[in-house]
């Protein structure tokens, strides 16, 4: 432990008798001083002893250091001597190695021609056997030495190509036959080894055949045998992927050019198996069932491209993407050339059938209803003439819009867009997508939504019809919902196909024209408001009595507002709710403002048809208050302001004659024309009195 002087002194004092309070002993400074002096002397003695020991060790250390330094110097001298000897030895080894290399070169120069001469002698011996027609050498008769025989035959065959035919006429008769026989034997051996699964033997035979003309036939045999039993299931694409995966692991252990062999296997699968399978699947429905044909074409092309993506993982050479694309194109070229014509033809007939089936279910015969361009529609809207737009049609409450029909049409178009994306050439994709979009516009927007709007417009009742049912708002509601679905498909499925092409602006313009045309027709349907006002007029005419505002017994009026007011308010609330459910966005506020203004005008004109007693005026104020409460449901500031002003005008029917001028100069009536104020004051039964006329003049 580290030495701490304070602790050491404390322990010394504690051990000394009288040095502390231990055991109740009294403190004795003399004794403690004596103990300290003795201890200091002991420490001094100990210090001297240790110091002598340290000096002795230092002297010994210095002595050993000198001896060690002397030994190191001796070792350095020995090392220098050894290094010099090593350099001499290295130089000597280099000299010997140079001599050996020179000698080796000389020996090689002598041995190489000798080996060639020996090989040439052997080849001449074998050549003589072929000339004699008798093959006696063991290499030709022993089946286990087929590899050596193949090497000899290959060399002799090359030599024979350079010899004159006239001088060695027997050789061409014998050697080519033996060459072919041996080649067949090697291929047969390779085939047998493949069936036995002997990869090493296959590799040896393939290496021998590499220099023979029949090497490609060996590869063909390998490819053929690989496919035996590989396509037993119904899924030829999955079988092909598994086969290529298995062969990819094996082919590198057998052939020196595995990428070429694997590419040839894939080419064979595409050109034989897949092409045959695709043809069988498509030709069956090509002329008889367009729907099944398109589904099969899309499915087969998708599965083929997916298989191609899996095969991209393998080493097939430098440009495997182009290689696989050409294989796919070769299979589907005859089907993809006229794909879009088949697609459009099917989509047209399928859409027409969906619509016709719907109208047949409604026992409805489609008829020609007023048509025209946008400008013609706008002109008819501006003039508010020629409504209904065609012959009067009783729709019996049918909107002729069906979400089921719309979903079916959109689903067919969605599938068409998906097929178009997959099957169209990239350069033709925007053009083909536009054609499909045009079909959707024709059958969904024109033949279904537009026809329903035209029919709804033609079915709008006249303003003086009694108990008229305003089904056009239901048409508006459903058309609005359907168009949202149409717009969603436009953004989700069409836009990705045309976003980077000139067809984008064309599609957007076509969509804009459709929206504008439909909005014009929806605006023309605003005349349903005339029917609503007509219904209100009919209610007021039937329910409002002259005695309501001029009761015979002024003191016995028990009602808070008239029955006509109750029924009109109930009717208006239903129509407001219907409008909110049928429309969205700013259209709701626009239509409600128009209805609210007409509603106010109707009540204003209606109130001016009666004379009002004092109690009748109070009842009129209650009616207007109820109308104003109904106007709050519109949530339109202008409409509420109009009814506030009307309520203030009704106060003129009950105010005391002396207060008329004060009321007329109030905040709500001060800006009104004096004739309007006068017209309301004239409705009072006491207007003829000189006092009232004098106060108002």
From TrEMBL:
<dbReference type="Pfam" id="PF20667">
    <property type="entry name" value="Sec10_N"/>
</dbReference>
<dbReference type="GO" id="GO:0006893">
    <property type="term" value="P:Golgi to plasma membrane transport"/>
</dbReference>
<keyword id="KW-0813">Transport</keyword>
<feature type="domain" description="Exocyst complex component Sec10-like alpha-helical bundle">
    <location>
        <begin position="148"/>
        <end position="696"/>
    </location>
</feature>
<dbReference type="GO" id="GO:0000145">
    <property type="term" value="C:exocyst"/>
</dbReference>
<feature type="coiled-coil region">
    <location>
        <begin position="40"/>
        <end position="78"/>
    </location>
</feature>
<dbReference type="InterPro" id="IPR009976">
    <property type="entry name" value="Sec10-like"/>
</dbReference>
<dbReference type="Pfam" id="PF07393">
    <property type="entry name" value="Sec10_HB"/>
</dbReference>
<dbReference type="InterPro" id="IPR048627">
    <property type="entry name" value="Sec10_HB"/>
</dbReference>
<keyword id="KW-0175">Coiled coil</keyword>
<comment type="similarity">
    <text>Belongs to the SEC10 family.</text>
</comment>
<feature type="domain" description="Exocyst complex component Sec10 N-terminal">
    <location>
        <begin position="29"/>
        <end position="137"/>
    </location>
</feature>
<protein>
    <recommendedName>
        <fullName>Exocyst complex component 5</fullName>
    </recommendedName>
</protein>
<dbReference type="GO" id="GO:0006887">
    <property type="term" value="P:exocytosis"/>
</dbReference>
<dbReference type="InterPro" id="IPR048625">
    <property type="entry name" value="Sec10_N"/>
</dbReference>
<keyword id="KW-0268">Exocytosis</keyword>
